[in-house]
Amino acid sequence: MVMLVLLEIFEMGSVVLYRGLLFVVGIENPWEAR
Questions:
Q1: What pLDDT shows up at residue 23?
Q2: Would you call 32 exposed, middle or buried from its count of C-beta atoms within 10 A (0-12, 13-18, 19+)?
């Protein structure tokens, strides 16, 4: 039970981090983020 919840939170967190990383990279390198 607890592991499933932790896995779900980890998945959501990693997706948010990934989007944030792409967002930052897009800001720093607007010509590369297409």
A1: 86
A2: exposed
For 31, residues 6+ apart whose C-beta sits below 8 A from its C-beta are: none
For 18-28, the pLDDT digits (tens) are 999 888 888 87
- What is the per-residue burial (b if ≥16 Cβ within 10 Å, else e) of 3-26? eeeeeeeeeeeeeeeeeeeeeeee
DSSP state of 3: H
**Which pTM was predicted?**
0.50
| CA gap 12, 14 in Å, rounded | 6
